[in-house]
Design a protein that fits this description.
Length: 313
């Protein structure tokens, strides 16, 4: 068994060049402190400021990826680490790339019968208006390959479509229009790989005015996170099973966190997306869920790091 004392020299990759750099630096700082507290020889490493080749030259033996968004969660860093032969946390190249692309994720989930809200991929304001006519109001417009609600707009009338498309397209030329599901917003982490993967407790998110945006995610204390989630009997178990299937269908490994909406009328859950390098800040949800399962933050970090591997290991 891998222990913190034989993990070698560990790089905590944080920061990076994505729109989520600020959050990544907070995640990385927490992970770094936790690993060092557990006796791991861990060091901060910002790929925006240093060449990844330095990881090999400086003798790092594994990496904890605390990067979020592009150039960290999308398979690019994973591919570089594969070439360097340095094991890393989380999903491999293909699963990371697919999970980062919300359109591709939805195509795969839909192909195997997993529920996800109706959607359209658009490339213009006119196409966004056509999607609105088809999907109805409200509609979510967002970049297909960003996270943390960056560039997201909730559209309630056709006049908003042009500005919503423009905002999303600033972050990604691939824009997703998605049917809005009114109801409970929940999230569920997964730890492990293959048959050993298990879903952690579900968290129900209650944001001010139902607006779980970037500010309410990371920088306010107004959002309520309920764990135990308080859902009707049997719903939490069904959501955990759904998230675990979604995780395995994309070929994810190590850890991840899936976001789900539950229709208020039908109580049917709909998969929104899956994050293969989840946040680890003071407001983050994986540590919160893990704590409810009896896993302390430092132990969670060590457990994720211990599972670091390569695609062909």
């Amino acid at each position: 068994m891998t222990t913190q004392h034989n993990m070698g020299k560990v790089a905590v990759l944080m920061g990076g060049r994505s729109a989520e750099r600020e959050v990544s630096l907070m995640s990385g700082a927490g992970v770094l402190q936790a690993l060092q507290e557990r006796g791991v020889d861990a060091h901060a490493f910002d790929p925006a400021e240093r060449d990844l080749a330095e990881l090999k030259r400086e003798g790092f033996s594994r990496c904890f990826i605390a990067l979020h968004g592009r150039f960290g969660e999308d398979g690019t860093v994973q591919g570089a680490l594969e070439l360097l032969g340095i094991p890393y946390t989380g999903s491999g190249v293909l699963a990371s790339s697919v999970a980062m692309d919300k359109v591709m994720t939805k195509r795969i989930w839909s192909a195997v019968g997993l529920p996800t809200p109706g959607w359209r991929q658009v490339d213009s304001a006119q196409a966004t208006r056509e999607a609105f006519a088809s999907l109805g109001s409200p509609m979510i417009v967002k970049p297909a390959r960003e996270g943390s609600t960056i560039g997201l707009t909730k559209v309630v009338n056709a006049a908003q479509c042009e500005e919503a498309y423009r905002l999303a397209a600033q972050h990604d030329p691939l824009v997703l229009c998605e049917q809005f599901i009114a109801g409970d917003e929940v999230t569920c982490p997964v730890l492990g790989t293959g048959d050993a993967a298990r879903a952690l407790p579900v968290i129900r998110i209650v944001a001010p005015d139902g607006n779980y945006d970037y500010q309410n995610k990371y920088f306010t204390d107004d959002t309520k996170y309920l764990v135990p989630c308080g859902l009707p009997e049997g719903e939490e178990v069904r959501i955990q099973a759904l998230v675990l299937e979604a995780f395995k269908t994309l070929g994810c490994r190590g850890w991840a966190r899936a976001d789900v909406m539950i229709d208020a009328t039908t109580r049917k859950p709909y998969l929104l997306e899956i994050n293969t390098s989840p946040g680890m800040t003071g407001h983050s949800l994986v540590p919160m869920s893990a704590r409810a399962a009896g896993i302390a933050y430092p132990d969670l970090c060590v457990q994720v790091l211990a599972a670091a591997t390569l695609d062909n290991a």
